[in-house]
Write a structure and sequence with these properties.
The complex is a heterodimer of chains A (about 425) and B (about 750). Chain A is built from 17 helices and 9 strands. Chain A is α/β, with parallel strands linked by helices and about 425 residues long. In chain A, helix 16 packs across helix 17. Chain B is built from 21 helices and 33 strands. Classes of the chains: A alpha/beta (about 425), B alpha/beta (about 750). Chains A and B meet through helix 12, helix 13 and helix 14 of A and helix 2 of B.
Amino acid sequence: MVVKVLTEGIGEVDLCDIEIYRARGGYEQWRRAVTALGAAGVMDATNRSGLRGRGGAGFPTARKWSFLPANGRPRYLVCNSDEAEPGTFKDRMLLERTPHQVIEGILIGSYAIGSRHSFIYIRGEFAEGYRIFKAALAQARAAGFVGERIFGSDVTVELTVHRGAGAYICGEETALLNSLEGRRGEPRLKPPFPAVKGLYGEPTVVNNVETLAYLPHILRNGPEWFASVGPQRSPGFKVVSVSGHVKRPGNFEVPLGTTLRELLELAGGPLEGRKIVAIQPGGGSSACLFEEHLGLSYDFDTMAAHGTMLGSGAIVFFDDSTDFVKAALALVRFYAHESCGQCTPCREGGHWLEVTLERILHGGGVESDIDMLLAVAHQLTGINLCPLGDSIEPFLASVVKRFEGQFRSYVRTLPVPA
Amino acid sequence: MTTLPKEVTLSIDGLPVTVPEGTLLVEAAKAVQTDIPVYCYHPKLGPAGLCRICLVEIEKTPKLQIACNTVVAEGMVVRTQGPKVEDGRRAVLEFLLLNHPLDCPICDKGGECDLQDYSIAYGQGMSRLAERKELKPKAIDLGPTIVLDDERCIVCQRCSRFDEIVTNERSLVVKDRGQRDVIATATGAPYRSNFSGNVTELCPVGALTSKTYRFRSRPWDLQRTRTTCQQCSVGCALNVDERHGNVLRTMSVPSDDAVSEGWLCDRGRYNVGFYADERRITSPLGRFGDEWVQLSWDDAIELWATRLEEALASAGSASIGVLGGGRLLNEEILLVRHVMRALGIANVDWRTGRQRQASPGARGGTYDDLENAQAIVTLGRPPSQSAPVMDLRIRKAVLRNGARLISIGAHPASSFVPATHLARLSDLAGTLAEVERIAFVWDGIDAALGAEAEAALAKLAAEGKHVSVFVPGETPNARGAEALGLLPAGGALDTRAQLEAARGGTLRILSIFGANPVLHHPAGAAFVREALKRVPFVVATDLFLTETGRLAHLVLPAKAAFEKDGHSFDLTGAVHAVNAAHGAPPDALSDGEVMIALAAHLGIDLPSPRELADWATASPATIANGLGDAALCGSLAPARDGAAGLRLAIAAHPFAGGGTVYFDDRLGELRPRPGLLLSPATAQAAGIGEADLVDLAAGGRVLHDLVATLDGNALEGVVTIVDGLPEAPANDFGEGETVTLGNVRSSRALAGSVV
């Protein structure tokens, strides 16, 4: 069942026009937050809604906000729009099709945590989204929703738009902060965590576009409305990017708890004459599920219980035409290429897996390579500075184990070159 | 600051450890002599969390943790051994060695390499990599001093973090990413820093090597001696590594926390090529007319002693002058003083350059005072030029403790940290209201300014502020020479007066100890040359035939700093041991040994070695030689200050000064070229562009063909030139005098920084 919360009006009206957005109640929750609810009211509603981060980690949003120390230092809210997880394209749609909703969400979130100057970091490749968002921000500023003395109060929220330069790693929040500060985009050592020492060394919250965009709706409809949808610990709605071997790939907004099979059907089902054999449910970093899992509820906790994750909500369906050696190489190559290179296991291990898979694919593999792939992928996991290195093993290991025959067929049937 | 930090007790490998709260696990482990391997971590750079080799197991934490970024906690149970930790380490080492060339047999680091050592201790002896190793450039020229072997690099980023955290110069970066990452400068320009050599020591593998040491030796063939650097007055501890009588390299002493904190400047590290330079004087030389004749030491000392006795008999001790001493060790200074006093000679002055005073007076501070100051004020030549490692303390105070750096006068601080600049000392009043601890650094050159500063500091001290004063010496042991009394007492002649007496024909003998007044004395080269030519007998001790030595009648081959034992003062007055690390040329004698020989010839009794040692290691305060500085500081010619036009500032430079730098061919790229530094606006007004050739003139004196460098940090209306360059001696010019620039020609020469 598709719902229309964030996606309301998309494809029907031009929500980039602030007048159209306002005519549908836009910025009213921003007004209500400042003039009626107060920051504590927003915080309370967010807490009661059970909203969990939509960027990948699924951390409860209000709890993340509560980690900011009350030390009188300036605080920053940074909206992470460096959407680059393989298979994910939901934030791009929100930026390009309903930018005011994103702005309103950022403003409400900023107000809740007390950020007087917030930032949005937009993926470098989103040229169109960047242009549209800038134009929308100019409208919002002209309308008095961004800047000083908002709605005649003493509330100030500035919003700065920053466009990345095209590095996947800058989606990791501390790499994003480095990049935003003009430094090399590589993750920071933690602790200290951004909540304590983030942007410019000050307490900082980094929230995903979709997470923030839900805030106006939670205020409008009440936290209970949001909390009552889906599983209790994983409530609310989610824009899911479905792609791969389906007839109608796209973004589908659904209540969490929708089954994978329903999502497959929303996307038009498998291609003619094909059968789904594997499902990557949460972006390139997630382990595969398989056809027997199609009945699972798509929510944070169910995915975790099955050894994978919901992640950013990107589902890739693989049918029985898939060459999983090639699929594995594509993803491993991606992570090896996007490794910032600062820490050893990810830098060296990713590259090693890439050249090994290439060799297998080109006929130079030996039997022991299959075990070595698993061993190397495992030994580079869990000892990295950031999650990028740890993203390699889940998919690779899950498909090697499931489709071992495909891998063995490469090393068996092709002659080893002299 | 006064409350003791709380302590935390934890267990490491079953042993209880109690350390202050906030201690990093990697440091706590040292308390129980447990070796946790590290590459990217360095105690002075802090954790980076990149190499992942320091993995340990912590009870109740599922994943292995890095010891370098884990803060100890009460009751924490840590295992640095066991299968889980060993698996983690083995994994990291396998990754590190995956594309490493394993060219240990030809690698300079072999034998002192952390990658080699840990691979043997924790590695698996075999790689599972079936592919060809990645090939990368083996010799990337990073700049004038450093070469990068990119295949060996493990990207620990110690070098780039040093360049950021310690020097704040931020020129080294990691370029590109993933497997393709490489150490480079951000701009692609050569890596130039006065502290570049430190990265070769920080590098845990053989990736960064010094051009001067590359492929020269294996570490186990080196003989190491700890001594104290004698290239400037900071007093850094230094390890000299020598083989077969050749100084091959110098290394920092990491435990030297009181002074260098384990860093060396490039002058101290790299200026060692002169030891083996073939131009060194290897026997006493007598000049008879234009002819130089080798003499035996006996003949040389006898000649000197005879001339002294003749002069004393015919014209008295007032006809004899003694110059220099700022490059000597304390024992040598004491022997010079002892012999001269025994002969009744009072015309003694160590000040053969611009500096008038090397003592900070009653408010002398320690390097800790400098680091803990809330405001650091520099007056005159900044320590970045004359005392580089001291400048790192200043940067630390600014960067880590938030100190304010204020420079006054014609010389900006040039410290790579935020600084404010004031035109006059009087502008300082009122800017230090909030500050309790002030460090004041003065170059000791302009005595009147020094007196003015002292009055201002006295006022600040009277307000209850803690004021500490620092005067970097123009010569390494200027402090020793001054404290131990190489000064004209009781109306005797100082350097300028001696030179004037020489020109007047009343000076019969001039003895010069390791000094080069022709190049350095502000009376100017022509004036000093003329004076020396009129003295019937000039003796000079030195390593080389310098501008001054060539005018002497007797030149004695001296021992250099690594060739003698003794003590020296650093600029704060702390005593340091100097130990012979290197065999001197067979016929060289230290100035102290020369004094002993001279005393023997003249029948002068010497102090006992015990007495000598007691004086040489006493603190300047207890020496109390009874010489008031104020009376001695008045004879400098007043600055030839003009009314309008461009004002001249004369700067120091770590690689200026002639002497050991001039006779070290390997330093060619580091020596400043004769040039001048201007602000862009000043240059524009004078019609000068970057790299133009310019003549600088004042009152008939001219320096030709100076290369212009435009620098946004230079002060408006000021032209800065470098002191002590033999090819363009600046000592014909006075600080602050008005100069004209002319004969501007464009040049293809690349402009390099002159200060």
